[in-house]
Amino acid sequence: MAAIKHKQLLPRHLGGEGDGILQCGTSSLDYNSQIFFQADKDKNFKSGSWSIKTFSGAEIKSGSINSGGWGKTSFSISGVVNQDPGCNAPVPVTMTISGQCGTGVTINFKAADGETGTFTGNVACS
Question: For residue 31, which of 84, 87, 109 has the smallest C-alpha distance?
Fold first, then answer.
């Protein structure tokens, strides 16, 4: 009798960070800031988190990641803004982070309330 081989699904990880500008959609505030994000999945999406902070470390906004996907060259993840002390916009609101994988790449942030950000940094897609 032949042995049955089971394909093992290895967890996949996405992680990135970058420097750029966040534009608050509800006001004229712009922040020189840093974005940080990470997400994990196996067969189904598991979990993730993200934050945007000032260069001194003060939180501008943060939240969770609950869907999305990535391959070797690009990613697009979606979730919720749970806290927004910097722009002071009502929460929760949905958001998307997307871009290319690699070094020195553009990372785009967009929230449903009109807040946007463009960052340059490093993203590891595995």
Answer: 87
